[in-house]
Specification:
- The complex is a heterodimer of chains A (153) and B (196).
- Chain A has seven helices and no strands.
- Helices cover 69% and strands 0% of the residues of chain A.
- In chain A, helix 4 crosses helix 7 and helix 5 packs parallel to helix 7.
- Chain A is elongated and about 85 Å long.
- The longest helix of chain B is centred in the C-terminal third of the chain and has 33 residues.
- Chain B is mainly alpha-helical.
- Helix content of chain B is 70%, strand content 0%.
- In chain B, helix 1 runs parallel beside helix 3 and helix 2 packs across helix 3.
- The chains are: A mainly alpha (153), B mainly alpha (196).
- The interface between A and B is large, with 44 and 51 residues.
């Protein structure tokens, strides 16, 4: 590998960085580091405490960092579904929406388990509850699928 | 290697001695800043380096490439510092220290800054060389540094001396460098006073 010819400024900067770097090694004991901070008017114990608290907070944020993209994916999944106010749907519209959702294999079972009755026999209130559950389940499945796809990418 | 065989091995970040890390990084930053910043600035730089190190959005530390965590954090801090100095340099005006700087300042203020910095760096190296004459070990360490051999353990091997001796020589070199820095700053502020 060819060596790049450095300017005097670059040489000096590299020398400064190198000599300063000794503070990061065993060349300086912990006591000497503390003395250097005291000489600059600082409190080594308080500084160390602030550093520990900062690291603790950042490590906590790091542990929870998976939540942010997960929440984003869930919101994306939710945004693709059509927001319908179930209260405004008539009985016919409710039955039609449920029939449509049944075509989704992952949701069909929910209808089957619906109080061992056909949707047609249910009250409007029960139909709304069923459709609401189907929508929620649909969101979760879509979010999970999205997460799986992005993981494999 | 990680259990999956991919990526760097896992590191237990919780078990790091963070108080020692921030103290050392702050002293490192103080030395890098010199008169350009305060202890609070140095602590802020150390905090930024730790923040960047623990931010999953940045490249993670690979101990196989850089086994020493503090050296890794030091290089992050250098990056943060250089970015900060670059931003500050965009708005900073300096006195016209030399005729060459005065000439180019009329045409290009940023060129003026570059000329001043280049001339000061050259002068600093010359002054430093003069100051260490007679201290053979410091001279040798200085030459190795200029040649790019900047790791104390490697310098110890090159010079066939115990690393503890090398550390002491580096401190003497650092003290001379600090004296040169102060001398140049005094000269620069004298020029500023004359101009004003």
């Amino acid at each position: 590998m060819s060596k790049k010819s450095l300017t005097e400024q670059e040489l000096l900067d590299r020398l400064d960085a190198s000599l300063a770097g000794d503070a990061l090694t065993e060349a300086y004991t912990q006591e000497e580091v503390a003395e250097a901070i005291k000489a600059a008017g600082g409190d080594p114990a308080a500084l160390g405490q602030r550093g520990a608290e900062l690291a603790k907070q950042l490590l906590k944020e790091r542990r929870l960092s998976w939540r942010r993209p997960a929440r984003q994916r869930l919101e994306e999944a939710q945004s693709v579904s059509v927001e319908v106010n179930l209260a405004t749907l008539s009985r016919g519209e409710l039955l039609e929406a449920i029939e449509e959702a049944r075509k989704e294999p992952s949701l069909g079972g929910l209808v089957g388990a619906f109080r061992k009755r056909k949707p047609e026999q249910a009250s409007e209130e029960e139909l709304r509850a069923l459709l609401s559950e189907m929508r929620t389940l649909g969101f979760i499945i879509k979010a999970k699928d999205k997460r799986r796809v992005s993981k494999n990418e | 290697m990680s259990p999956s065989g991919k990526g760097p091995p896992p590191v237990d970040l919780e078990s790091i001695d963070w108080p020692d890390v921030i103290r050392r990084l702050t002293v490192f930053a103080m030395k890098r800043l010199g008169s350009r910043g305060s202890l609070a600035d140095a602590e802020d730089l150390a905090g930024q380096a730790i923040r960047q190190f623990l931010d999953p959005d940045y490249a993670s530390w690979n101990p196989e490439e850089e086994p020493d965590l503090l050296r890794h954090l030091g290089s992050i801090l250098n990056g943060v510092l250089n970015n900060s100095l670059r931003r500050k340099a965009l708005g900073v005006e300096r006195p016209l220290d030399t005729p060459e700087a005065s000439r180019v300042a009329v045409e290009d203020p940023s060129a003026q800054r570059r000329v001043i910095a280049r001339e000061q760096a050259g002068r600093a190296i010359r002054l430093l060389s003069e100051r260490i004459v007679g201290d053979d070990l410091v001279e040798s360490v200085f030459l190795l540094e200029l040649d790019g051999i900047d790791i104390p353990s490697e310098q110890a091997i090159e010079l066939d001396r115990p690393v503890a001796e090398i550390y002491k020589a580096r401190r003497r070199l650092g003290a001379h460098r600090e004296a040169v820095r102060r001398q140049l700053e005094t000269e620069s502020s004298n020029v500023k006073e004359i101009i004003n």
